Amino acid sequence: DAGITQSPRHKVTETGTPVTLRCHQTENHRYMYWYRQDPGHGLRLIHYSYGVKDTDKGEVSDGYSVSRSKTEDFLLTLESATSSQTSVYFCAIRGGRTDTQYFGPGTRLTVL
Amino acid sequence: KNQVEQSPQSLIILEGKNCTLQCNYTVSPFSNLRWYKQDTGRGPVSLTIMTFSENTKSNGRYTATLDADTKQSSLHITASQLSDSASYICVVSAIIPSWGKLQFGAGTQVVVTP
Question: What's the CA gap between B55 and B74, in Å, rounded?
Answer without folding.
Answer: 10
